[in-house]
Amino acid sequence: MTVRFTLNGAPVSVECAGSRRLLDTLREDLGKTGTKEGCGEGECGACSVLIDGEVVDSCLVAVGQIEGRNVVTVEGLAGPDGKLSRLQQAFIEHGAAQCGICTPGMLLAAHVLLQRTLPPSADDVREGLAGNLCRCTGYTKIIEAVLSCTT
Amino acid sequence: MYDVTYLRPTNLKDAVQLYRATPGCRPLAGGTDLMVMLHARTLRPAPRAVLDVWSLLELKGVRRSQGMLEIGAAESYTGIIRSRDAQEHVPALVAAARTIGAAQIQNRGTLGGNLANASPAGDTLPVLLAYDAVVVTDRRSIPIDQFFTGYRKTALQPDELIVAVRMPLGRRVVFRKVGTRAAQAISKVVTAVSRSPARVALGAVAEVPLRARRAEAALERGDVEGAIAAVADDIRPIDDVRSTAAYRRTVAQNVLRSLLDDLART
Fold first, then answer.
1. Is the same domain home to A135 and A92?
2. How many helices and strands in chain A, by DSSP H and E?
3. Which chain A residues have a beta carbon less than 8 Å from that of B3?
4. Is position A118 within any domain?
5. In total, how many domains does chain B have?
6. Which residues from B are below 8 Å from A when comparing CB atoms?
7. Model's pTM, two decimal places?
């Protein structure tokens, strides 16, 4: 089937089975490899993307379900000139990325949190990022990076 | 991934017709269980089609209807958590929804999915039992205590779609989940309790989410200690990767005591 949706602000159209995972379409059909595959079962959050402004695991979404929707991946966070967002810059400055696999999902979950809850407390950040697992940082630097964007 | 036909009806009437006409079809809502099983090819028998009900307006929303609170089968947990009506009338369900996964899962998981999947550890299911919820399908209403018929088995006919869940207004229910961590954890023991009427419902302690009938009978007599003793015999826990039967028995008793204390205090 043909599925049309908006990806990072631009209209796209893909031809694939409607039951294909959004994750696979993003990475393999559209070349957007910023979205990572971790567990493939909704536990780790590495494949997080935004659909209509809500964070979801793209391994759990069938492509047919995003017809007409607005999808944002990590590639959509920086400005059109490639300038990193404040949150992305904060991750660099705080050393909030190590191996990097969880980072795109962390950024998107934190992006939503910063839009929804102002200003989030450290507990809000922990809860907002609870669906994103990191095996390197111990989370402290990630939480500090997000909190640095609240002032 | 199974090679399945993807069906996307645009209204409930078409969905019901398509579902009846398509053998080997599985309803797909938020995909938090089904997409995993489709990808890992762990469904038996192998499905031939999925029926996408996620966007059906008739399956969305939280509303008061006929003196009950009605929640659409495909409403997300996030939608339930944000609903003023749900917060006011079924706060224990809101509390349960907040413990499910984390934001990513709450944005996609649904009551219809939790019911249809019928995992013994489904976190909303003891709450629905404690509220005496009614499962509304395309053809009938099924009392929740008749819904779970065996391990991951339900009273649904093969071509029967869950449309909504109804709960009475004004019942006081309390909820507690015990898991490895607050988020993204499958429950070791999940409990929901009401004092009037006496309901003691538990998950992850038997092959189905269940009501502890002897504990309820003791509570009806006002015998709190009897209820706490009886719940250990009402449940049928096993040793598995998440916990042991002995731990689950002890925790079920301790949590029941704690929840009854909470109900007595306020």
1. yes
2. 5, 5
3. 17
4. yes
5. 3
6. 1-4, 6, 8, 28, 30-32, 35-36, 38-40, 50, 52, 54-55, 78, 101-105, 107-108, 182-184
7. 0.96
CA distance B126 to B264: 20
Regarding whether A106 and A50 lie in a shared domain, the answer is no
Residue numbers in A near B179 (CB within 8 A):
none
| Domain assignment present for A81 | no
Mean pLDDT by 10 residues, chain B (266 residues): 93 98 97 96 93 98 94 98 98 96 97 97 97 98 98 97 97 94 86 97 96 98 98 94 93 97 90
B contact test, residue of A57, A66, A71 with most B CBs within 10 A? A57
Query: For chain A, which ranges sit under pLDDT 70?
Result: none
Of the residues B168, B197, B212, which one is the last residue of a structural domain?
A: B168
- Tens of pLDDT, residue by residue over A11-27, are 999 999 999 999 999 99
Residue A70 domain flag: yes
pLDDT recorded at residue A128: 95
Which ipTM score applies to this complex? 0.97
Q: Which of B168, B186, B220 is the last residue of a domain?
A: B168
